[in-house]
Amino acid sequence: MDDDGPGILQAQRESMFERGVQLDERRPGAGLGLDIVRSLAVINTYGGSVQAQVSPLGGARLRLSLPAADRGARQGAAAKEWRATMGSPDSRLR
Question: What is the enclosing helix (H) or strand (E) of 23?
C-alpha cells in the first residue's frame, strides 16, 4: 500500500510494528494493529513478512508478502493460532 503523506523515518520502520507503538498520536488508538498483522497473520500463521518502505509517491509503502499455500491449510493454521491465543469460542462465553 502506498501513500503520499510525510512518510516514515528510517529509524521508526521497525519499531512501528511493536505492540503499543503509535506513530501518529493525533489519532486515537492503542498501537496494536501493526503488531497483530506482524505477529499473528504474517510471521506465526502464514510465514510471510511485512515491511515499511519509501513509496514512489513520496510517503510510505507498507508491503505485505505471503507465500502461496493451500487454502485449507491456511484456514486450519489460522484457527489453530486463534485458539492458542484466545481460547475456544465456547470457553469465552462461560
Answer: none
Are residues 82 and 64 in contact, defined by beta-carbon separation less than 8 angstroms?
no
Average pLDDT (77-88) is: 68
DSSP 19: T
Q: What region, left, alpha or beta, does residue 6 occupy, with left being phi > 0 and alpha being psi -120 to 50 degrees?
A: alpha
How many other β-carbons are positioned within 10 Å of the β-carbon of residue 69? 12
Q: Is residue 85 part of a domain?
A: yes
C-alpha cell of residue 40: 499473528
This prediction has a pTM of 0.62
Range of the domain at 71: 10-89
Give me 65's grid cell: 508478502
